[in-house]
Predict the structure.
Amino acid sequence: MSKENSHLKSILETVGVVVGSFIFAMIVIVAATKKDSPEPTPKVVQNTVVEEKVAEADVKPVAEVKVAQVTPEKTGDSGSISGEKIAQKNCALCHSSGMMNSPKIGDKEQWAPRIAQGKEMLVNNAIKGIGVMPAKGGNTSLSDAEVAAAVVWMANSSGGSL
Ligand code: HEC
């Protein structure tokens, strides 16, 4: 009885080792296959991300074009020069706050007597400088037409209709 038992044991052990190594081999194979399989998945994800980026890039220029088209219409400037943009960049430093006693953009009272001088005078003074205001507000790279557009926008934002 005990002899048979030990014989059976050794058979079972052998079978166990064989089956065990089969299972181990299966696990290794499955693991190896699984390691391979995640690779294509990120590629798909990457493609999606790239596509989304492309889609964003497609949308952005459209929005920019829209802004560029609206601004000149809104300010009523001639041509493609945006007086508002020029003024915000080069003139608002003083004129948005009334710094150095400059006529404040939007302050109709301060602008009324200046607007009364006429567009030419205003533009001329802005180009050449007036009082403590430097010529062209200090940015001599601006063209006369750009300064004029800024003057028109500033004056029209302050009760004028140049
Ligand atoms: C450094 C500050 C400063 C900047 C920048 C500046 N200005 Fe002035 N501006 C003044 C001051 C101060 C006055 C008032 C001058 C005076 O009447 O003695 C003035 C006056 C003016 C007037 C009225 C002129 C008149 O005949 O009464 C206009 C128009 C004007 N600025 C346009 C502009 C434009 C356009 C820009 C930008 C391109 C600009 N300014 C940038 C300070 C500035």
Notes: Helices lie at 2-36, 40-75, 83-90, 92-95, 108-115, 119-128, 144-156.
